[in-house]
## 1
Amino acid sequence: MSEIKKIGKSRVANTDAGAFVMGNNPFAHFDEYAGLSRTVDWEADPALIGGVKLVPHGLNNDLPVIIRDIMDKNNLAPGILEREMGLLYGDGPQLYQVKYEEGKVSREYVEDAQVQAWLDSWDYKRYIDMAMVEYKYMKGVYVKRVRNRAPRIGGPGMIKYLEVIPGTDARLEWPEKGPKRLESVKRIWVGDFQNHCLHTGMTGYPVHDPWNPFKHGISIAYHNKYSFGRNFYSVPSYYGSLNWIMRSSDIPEVLKYLSENGITSAYHIHSPAGYWEAKEEKIEKMHPGETEAQRSKRVEELKDKTFQKMARVLTGKRNAGKFIETVDFYDEDGNKNEWKVEAIDQKIKDFVESQVKIGEKADSATTSGMGLHPSLSNIIVNGQLSSGSQMLYALKLYMASDTTLPEEVVFEPINQAIAANFKGKKLRMGFYHHSVMKEEDVAPNERLVNNAENPS
């Protein structure tokens, strides 16, 4: 007789031979998904939802949700992305003008009361925060533009505010005409796609036209950086590292189960046959009218209860130091019958060391896939933290090469709105970063070590 029960995300089969855990992998869905995604082009055919043909985002139109769930369970990747966003943000958003002097391009940060008043009229910092998160996680961001009502009566148009639509809630409409690529998309749909829009329905918006910014009262645009071989959506740079990210998340869970229950059989229990024969005789005397099948069932129930009690004592981190009382007795021939509990060498040390090495490799691969130098991620390499000079040069390299493209995507909607609302003002917005110097190049009274010892 066998019985299968679902416990959390695992299935436990209780059979005559024992209990077996099946599918104890929270990422089993993505393991299958990742294998198929390498051979199946999810952008080849539309997904039909609510009677509307959409460009599926992922094999099952759920890639943003899968990315979110994988990141939620990882202890390293979200922190790396947070560090990247902190480095990108720098000293915050500022208005600037582009200057050309002696063949060099520079920024001149300026104040403009009119533009700043427009920015302060809506929560532009919230927009920037959400746009950074969306871009870093998914390499693309949906931005809604809401125009004023003046053009309805012939007045001047103006973009009132911008709003980020989460990637889990927006999809591109399948283009019926033109080439199958992003530029051919005419509408973007918003709804609860995680739950197939069953309770919320969908709302379609025209794609924003930067050459005619006041054409629509509300419009949405998908801002991204092109991913090679992808016609519509971008995929994050760490997409190929997702298997390593999942392995990194698995290690703590494996060690947790090892600590609490053990991965394999830890004990071999010998029970004397004479013990159970005596129990069966006692049951027969207590229930003289029962059949042999009924008595056997009672014996099996007694065995289950006995071994369950022993399992509670033998397993679990809270049971260290407990002991088991057993009964020894002799048969008619004087032979000793006894219970025995023998520990099985599971080579725990070797197993734990191998898991730790896998975890270190997974952490390294995760960091590489994220594109951030280990010295900037607080990752220990070969048992050592990076030196100050390594961190400084890694920071300068990151600022010189990895901030421009994300900044362009995050601020493209704001800069388009500034250009449309304030014609003639050659203003843009971007992140301000001050130059980081070596400690020896800093005046002694301004060095960090002195400021830490003598705080003002």
Note: The first helix runs from residue 28 to 37.
## 2
Amino acid sequence: MAGGKGAGGFFKLAIVLIAILALGIGGFQPLIRAMKLGLDLQGGVYVLLQAQSTPEHAVTSEDMAALERVMRDRVDQLGIAEPVIQREGTDRLIIQLAGVSNPEEAIKMIGKTAMLEFKTSDGQVVVTGKDLKDAKAVIDQQSQEPQITLKFNDEGTKKFAEKTQELVNSYSRGDPKRHIAIYLDDQLLTNPHVDEAIPSGEAVIRGGFASFEEAANLAALLRGGALPVPVQIIERRTVGPTLGADSLAKSKTAIIVGVFLIALFMLLVYRLPGLIADFSLFVYTLIVLGVMWALKATLTLPGIAGLLLSVGMAVDANVIIYERLKEELRNGKTLRAAIDAGFKRAFTTIFDSNATTVLAALVLYYLGSGTVRGFAVTLSLGIAASMFTAITLTRFLLHLVIGVPAFHKLWLYGVKEEQIPAAARGEI
């Protein structure tokens, strides 16, 4: 019976460990490939904008909210997935665009004011970009040149119709001034005649476009709206895709080497429990990467640093548990009782140390920005996962281990036979 029970315990343990290995080996690469990569790993553009106060108007929180909204609209026009746009302080805005194919064009779109105005010959403003409903770049069927078609909203349509009718009536009475000029950022784009009233709320910007792409970019700016306040680009960085790919490759190597060295240390120092901790590390890494993928978190270099730091903390929890386990064995407790006591007595220490680290991560997240927040997120996720794997999974695996008679030898747990009281030797 004892032999059959031992064989059954070994079979259960083997099945669980093989499943963990298969899950770790098969799941790591797909999760890394599916992860959304940050600017430093994928390449792209980093821009720091500062809103400028004027003598007439000081920058307010409402202005920054409107600026953030306009910038997000503009970036969406570029077709960039999951851009990072967030405020820094009271008057700055951080924009990170990972994977952009044309960094200079992206920066040009970000920094342009895009104030659109329709003015009469005497300088009266008829409608502005705020009255726009839509703007599209098209190819004129006759001239085959790019142009932009504009569609006003209801209020803009009414104002445009009234002014064009007024100009037509004035022209019929002998007034030669019948132009409505189109200005972008106080620069004249075109100055067409008004031959008839335009009640449809539609207009066209013709000429002056070197390519269809230029017209499309301008249309995108107009759809996004004008900036609510003047802005200045105070910092800009471009990370090339080659440099980003090199950083990603080095980061992968760092993760593999770091985890391997930690696993080797645990195996050499703590033997069989160390091997169990190594299997827990497989699960831990998959949990962290899986949660980050599910939350659509961005993986950055600081985030990888946070991941590696939390790996070390996950092992630190195992170290505390295993040292308590050895101490309980030296005090004469049976193997099963020593495992339970080791986990129970180590829990408070592990919880307190992790709680203080989580508190620090929360401070970094709420007071930091950009990559600092990425570091805080991965560190917090790592700590939560390490608590689960170190306290729950490792304990479960160790109980499976002591179900195999061949693994009852105390030297497998880092304790010498002569260190155990004679009355307790040979007990499970």
Note: The CA atoms of residues 27 and 51 lie 45 Å apart.
## 3
Amino acid sequence: MIRWLSILALLWLAGCGVANLPTQAEPAAAPITPGAERLAEYLPLLQGKRVGLLVNQTSRVGEQHLVDVLLAHQVNIVSIFAPEHGFRGDHDAGASVSSGVDSKTGIPLLSLYGPSKAPSAAQMQAVDLVIFDIQDVGVRYYTYISSMHYLMQAAAEHNVAMLVLDRPNPNGRYLDGPLLDLAYQSFVGMHPIPLLHGMTVGELALMIKGERWITQAEQLALTVIPVAHYQRAMTYSLPVPPSPNLPNDQAIALYPSLGFFEATPLSVGRGTPMPFQVIGYDKFSLGDFNFTPVATPGAALNPPLKDTPSQGQDLRQVSAGGLDLSYVINWYQLFAAQQATFFNSPQFMDKLAGTASLRQQIEQGLTEQQIRASWQPALKAFAAQRQPYLLYR
């Protein structure tokens, strides 16, 4: 009887807010730690080696650039390879990147985005090991993974070891879009993967080697330093913009959906403070938001609809994530109603999509649901194919 009275008393006190006994605080989640910050895991691999780096402005270790950190640890850096947008990330999209010398360190800068996309034999013979450390956004037509592919190929051919310092994928929770048909392979799409592949660059490097998407793949000595305390469904806000026209999280979230507009006469905000966050045109519109693209050094010297007042949609506050076909479908239908050409660069559209099917489906009037249904068998097969290479849950 006394036992039951005690239990009832506790329940009454709890209801009054009196018996809320102190509980132990939940331990704070460990911070996401990119591979570059896990120095103890890879510095021993660099001792006595001539090292080349494929890096850009996102290659940070805390507040310092990876190059500066490695030099402080007496790593022998003999060359820095520069991808699209350059070593400092201040070149326009598509603008040729020149070779030269880094003014701060005196280390030779070797362009991988100009006349040649791959290191030369002489450049590879000058190094014992190459490092790839660039923040990607998880979209197939974003070209940093193409530069990684060419570096992997050169390393395999010349028996140079390769180290990938992994970073989170801000679009890592999504597996979506058409798979690339190798008939449409280009620098904006080199691998038979979906538009949103849901993999980090480290996982993708393992897959490129494992699936033999480079020649002599078996010769490549590849090491990946994983991200600590990371799962692919985690939200990850990039500390440094990965390129001039992806300045914030909203642009990165919208990029998979708005990239297709690069094959149309419309503007997605290049040459404004809100690239990849607006859509507009000068002759007719789906919205009433007004903006005017202008020449912007380091981001867009000659943007679509330059100096032309444009009207359309402001997407800066919309909920964005994954691949949303409604934008391109709705604008295509508006152009069709006006008897105007929407895909004024159909070949580039097909390269971006990795197939002609998406453009043809839109032109045939298929709904987004019908188009998505056509992707599902290939997406299911890819999900199984990528499984052996995944490093994170």
Note: The longest strand covers residues 76-82.
